């Protein structure tokens, strides 16, 4: 019973952590734009937090490179489960236009498991909101697996 | 002191600036660059799009009449639609929806491509 | 006396970008700051070997999302100079319009983030609300909110209709009135003055000797702006750089705030003088030789070095971005400052890490 209420509560107010994993700022400022008055995801209870230990959803933008892949791995490991990873932008999905450059690992899913992919260069705020909502559905599924 | 008060009061009295996104969707602008769509029945498999694509995410197999593109690597610059010789490539206004799995878009045309007289492809 | 070393970043709530600073503290006062880079390095200059010189426009545009239009413009101007292409006058005016719109959206973004860095969150929200209007203009005229992709070698890809120019002018009017209302808040508010006046002071001599560029340099009283080189259509447009003399965080804020109004004025002039005609010329041949190109970005002057060898792939591309020039200022300003002032001082140079590391 208590577990159920907790799940509900977490669903209603997902806290997100945003990490720039080497992107061009395009997707980052669109993630930030989601938090500002015009898109205002806070009306869904979404809070942007700076602490990975408080976060439910990890939003990753950008091509992963050989230096920050460890930071990304570290942040992912610090998040409490169940957790959802949303990769944003062409760079976060495959490396985008840079995927043949020498310092690009190419895609967040080469380092950590990704649940939702948001395409676009840069992804529009509407697409990011869609992605977070889709991530929440996944979050619910994961929670059920954890309880049973 | 109290320099922000007039702005706050004005914001309180005005209608909210928020676009209530999932409840009311704002139509895309006419010029908006969204996802790429190919009308495979018109496509001549000339391969100009594959050569010109800055992200190199389009592959064209002329013999097998295959046109495939990787939507997750596409940067939506619109160059392919601009250079398309047959007019089969179009850039839609809508953005591509988020997905749970990355997939290639593979389109198969008629196996005997129509004859065409394109200029030789040069980079 | 105890010495503490505090890591700042790479994932920090104030900065959306990964910069890493090792701060050595003596009690509450910083004695040394050592930056570490490489979290955003992609190695895109080497992509010239596999992408041809037309495709590189879209690659250099994605060096940085905030000043993308100006990167592409600088690159295209360099290649045009190398190939001896005369761009049509209409294209040059259109480039000015879009580049100034880009400067406005970058400065508004910075003003918001700056307000956020000392905890004035409602001001942050106000600036970002105004910024959405600029992004709407961008999307309506070019098709994308941030990465506009309008530059091609020999001109621009999109044209503005008469209706669109009228739309831009009316939107700019509403942006101007809304910004005027915020002027007393950002410039005269007690909180803002308390956190910015006298923080991170650079004298004109120091700023000049460190080789700073852009608003960081102009806030110290040195009048230098790459737009004085009269690239694009700036030779037909009246322009005087915005200069402040105090050299502290407040002066940098003032310069950027005044530059937003200057950009509005420049766009009005450019739309007023917009000539009719072609927007692009056909490009034939391949670039050969070497060239340097300079453009004033929102953060300062960007410098491109391009060397070509007559094939479709360039031989070398080197980009020197404004933040690269401004980081030494950070290392001069931080020692002696308190730990609580670090976010304000770091943001006052408007760091763009993805530009710096490419």
Looking at CATH, which topology of the largest domain in chain C would you report?
A: Cytochrome-c3 Hydrogenase, chain B
Query: How many β-strands of chain B, per DSSP?
Result: 5
Dominant shape of chain C: globular
Q: Which strand-content bin applies to the residues of chain C?
A: 5-15%
CATH architecture of the largest domain in chain C: Orthogonal Bundle
Number of helices of chain B: 3
Going by CATH, the homologous superfamily of the largest domain in chain C would be: Cytochrome-c3 Hydrogenase, chain B
Strand order of the largest sheet of chain B: 2-3-5
Q: What average pLDDT do the residues of chain B reach? A: 80
| Shape verdict of chain B | elongated
Secondary-structure element string of chain C: EEEHHHHEEHHHHHEEEHHH
The proportion of residues in beta strands of chain B is 5-15%
Reported CATH architecture of the domain at 26-108 in chain B: 2-Layer Sandwich
In total, how many beta strands of chain C? 8
Give the SSE order of chain B as H and E letters. Answer: HEHEEHEE
Helix percent band of chain B: 10-25%
- State the strand order across the main sheet of chain C: 1-2-3
**Termini gap of chain C:** 40 Å
Query: Regarding quaternary structure, how should these chains be classified?
Result: heterotrimer
Give a quick precis of the structure.
The complex is a heterotrimer of chains A (148), B (123) and C (358). By secondary structure, chain A is α/β, with parallel strands linked by helices.
Describe this structure in words.
The complex is a heterotrimer of chains A (148), B (123) and C (358). Chain A contains five helices and five strands. Chain A is α/β, with parallel strands linked by helices. Chain A starts with a helix and ends with a helix. Chain B has a domain at 26-108: Alpha-Beta Plaits, CATH 3.30.70. Chain B has helices spanning 5-13, 48-52, 79-83, and strands at residues 36-38, 58-61, 66-69, 89-91, 105-108. By secondary structure, chain C is an alpha+beta fold. Chain C has helices spanning 55-60, 68-83, 89-117, 121-142, 162-188, 190-196, 204-209, 214-218, 249-273, 322-333, 342-348, 353-357, and strands at residues 3-8, 20-26, 29-36, 151-152, 155-156, 288-297, 300-309, 314-320. A three-stranded antiparallel sheet of chain C has the order 1-2-3, with no helix packed on it. In chain C, helix 5 (162-188) packs antiparallel against helix 9 (249-273). The longest helix of chain C has 29 residues, at 89-117. The A-B interface holds A 37-40, 43, 86, 90, 93-97, 99-100, 109, 115-121, 123-127, 129-131, 133-134, 138 and B 16-19, 21-22, 25, 35, 54-56, 70-77, 95-102.
């Amino acid at each position: 019973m208590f577990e159920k209420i907790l799940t509900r509560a977490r669903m209603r107010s997902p806290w997100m952590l945003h990490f720039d994993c080497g992107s061009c700022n395009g997707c980052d400022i669109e993630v930030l734009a989601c938090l500002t008055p015009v898109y205002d995801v806070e009306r869904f209870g979404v809070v942007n937090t700076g602490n990975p230990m408080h976060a439910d959803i990890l939003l990753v933008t950008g091509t992963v490179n050989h230096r920050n892949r460890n930071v990304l791995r570290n942040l992912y490991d610090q998040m409490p489960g169940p957790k959802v990873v949303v990769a944003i932008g062409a760079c976060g999905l495959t490396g985008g236009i840079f995927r043949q450059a020498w310092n690009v690992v190419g895609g967040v899913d080469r380092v950590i498991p990704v649940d939702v992919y948001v395409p676009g260069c840069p992804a529009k705020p509407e697409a990011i909101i869609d992605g977070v909502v889709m991530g929440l559905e996944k979050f619910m599924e994961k929670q059920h697996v954890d309880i049973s | 002191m109290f320099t922000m008060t007039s702005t706050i009061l004005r914001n309180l009295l005005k209608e909210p600036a928020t676009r209530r996104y999932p409840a009311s969707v704002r139509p895309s602008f006419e010029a908006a660059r969204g996802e790429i769509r190919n009308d495979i029945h018109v496509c001549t498999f000339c391969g100009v799009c594959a050569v010109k694509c800055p992200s190199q995410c389009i592959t064209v197999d002329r013999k097998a009449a295959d046109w495939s593109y990787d939507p997750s690597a596409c940067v939506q610059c619109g160059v392919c639609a601009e250079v398309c010789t047959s007019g089969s490539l179009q850039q839609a206004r809508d953005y591509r929806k988020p997905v749970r799995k990355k997939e290639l878009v593979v389109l198969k045309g008629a196996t005997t491509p129509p004859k065409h007289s394109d200029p030789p492809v040069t980079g | 006396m105890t010495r503490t070393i505090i890591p700042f970043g790479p994932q920090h709530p104030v900065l959306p970008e990964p910069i890493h600073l090792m701060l050595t503290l003596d009690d509450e006062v910083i004695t040394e700051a050592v930056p570490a880079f490489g979290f955003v390095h992609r190695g895109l200059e080497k992509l010239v070997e596999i992408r041809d010189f037309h495709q590189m426009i879209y690659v250099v545009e994605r060096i940085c999302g905030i000043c993308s239009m100006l990167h592409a413009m600088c690159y295209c101007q360099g290649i045009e100079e190398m190939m001896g292409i005369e761009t049509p006058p209409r294209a040059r005016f259109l480039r000015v319009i879009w580049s100034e719109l880009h400067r406005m959206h970058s400065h508004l973004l910075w003003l918001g983030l700056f307000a956020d860095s000392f905890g004035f969150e409602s001001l942050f929200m106000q600036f970002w609300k105004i910024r959405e209007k600029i992004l709407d203009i961008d999307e309506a005229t070019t098709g994308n909110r941030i990465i506009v992709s309008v530059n091609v070698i020999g001109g621009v890809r999109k044209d503005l209709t008469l209706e669109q120019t009228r739309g831009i002018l009316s939107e700019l009017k509403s942006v101007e009135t809304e910004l005027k209302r915020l002027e007393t808040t950002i410039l005269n508010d007690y909180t803002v003055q308390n956190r910015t006046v006298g923080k991170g002071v650079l004298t004109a001599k120091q700023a000049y000797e460190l080789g700073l560029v852009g608003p960081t340099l102009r806030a110290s009283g040195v009048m230098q702006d790459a737009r004085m080189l009269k690239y694009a259509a700036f030779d037909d447009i009246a322009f005087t750089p915005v200069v402040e003399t105090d050299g502290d965080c407040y002066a940098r804020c003032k310069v950027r705030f005044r530059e937003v109004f200057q950009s509005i004025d420049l766009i009005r002039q450019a739309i007023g003088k917009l000539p009719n005609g072609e927007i692009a010329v056909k490009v034939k041949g391949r670039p050969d030789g070497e060239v340097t190109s300079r453009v004033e970005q929102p953060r300062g002057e960007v410098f491109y070095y391009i060397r070509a060898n007559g094939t479709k792939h360039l031989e070398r591309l080197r980009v020197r971005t404004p933040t690269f020039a401004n980081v030494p200022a950070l290392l001069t300003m931080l020692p002696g400052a308190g730990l609580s002032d670090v976010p304000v001082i770091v943001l006052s140079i408007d760091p763009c890490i993805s530009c710096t590391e490419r």
